[in-house]
Amino acid sequence: MLKVAIAGATGYTGAELMRLLAQHPNVEIVCVTSEQSSGVLLATRLPFLKGFSDLTLEKFDADRVAEGADFIFSALSHTKAMKPVSHLINAGKKVVDLSADYRLQSVQAYEKWYSAPHQEKALLKKAVYGLPEIYRKKIAKASLIANPGCYPTGALLPLYPFLKSGEVDTTREIIIDAKSGVSGAGRAPTDATHFPEVNEGLVPYDVGTHRHIPEIEQEIAVFEAKIIFTPYLLPINRGILTTIYLPLKRKMTQDQLEEVLYEYSSEFFIRLMDHPPNVRDVRGSNFCDIAVFATSGGRTAIVISAIDNLVKGAAGQAIHNMNIMMGWDEHTGLTAPPIFP
Amino acid sequence: MLKVAIAGATGYTGAELMRLLAQHPNVEIVCVTSEQSSGVLLATRLPFLKGFSDLTLEKFDADRVAEGADFIFSALSHTKAMKPVSHLINAGKKVVDLSADYRLQSVQAYEKWYSAPHQEKALLKKAVYGLPEIYRKKIAKASLIANPGCYPTGALLPLYPFLKSGEVDTTREIIIDAKSGVSGAGRAPTDATHFPEVNEGLVPYDVGTHRHIPEIEQEIAVFEAKIIFTPYLLPINRGILTTIYLPLKRKMTQDQLEEVLYEYSSEFFIRLMDHPPNVRDVRGSNFCDIAVFATSGGRTAIVISAIDNLVKGAAGQAIHNMNIMMGWDEHTGLTAPPIFP
Amino acid sequence: MLKVAIAGATGYTGAELMRLLAQHPNVEIVCVTSEQSSGVLLATRLPFLKGFSDLTLEKFDADRVAEGADFIFSALSHTKAMKPVSHLINAGKKVVDLSADYRLQSVQAYEKWYSAPHQEKALLKKAVYGLPEIYRKKIAKASLIANPGCYPTGALLPLYPFLKSGEVDTTREIIIDAKSGVSGAGRAPTDATHFPEVNEGLVPYDVGTHRHIPEIEQEIAVFEAKIIFTPYLLPINRGILTTIYLPLKRKMTQDQLEEVLYEYSSEFFIRLMDHPPNVRDVRGSNFCDIAVFATSGGRTAIVISAIDNLVKGAAGQAIHNMNIMMGWDEHTGLTAPPIFP
Amino acid sequence: MLKVAIAGATGYTGAELMRLLAQHPNVEIVCVTSEQSSGVLLATRLPFLKGFSDLTLEKFDADRVAEGADFIFSALSHTKAMKPVSHLINAGKKVVDLSADYRLQSVQAYEKWYSAPHQEKALLKKAVYGLPEIYRKKIAKASLIANPGCYPTGALLPLYPFLKSGEVDTTREIIIDAKSGVSGAGRAPTDATHFPEVNEGLVPYDVGTHRHIPEIEQEIAVFEAKIIFTPYLLPINRGILTTIYLPLKRKMTQDQLEEVLYEYSSEFFIRLMDHPPNVRDVRGSNFCDIAVFATSGGRTAIVISAIDNLVKGAAGQAIHNMNIMMGWDEHTGLTAPPIFP
Question: What ipTM, to 2 d.p.?
Answer without folding.
Answer: 0.97
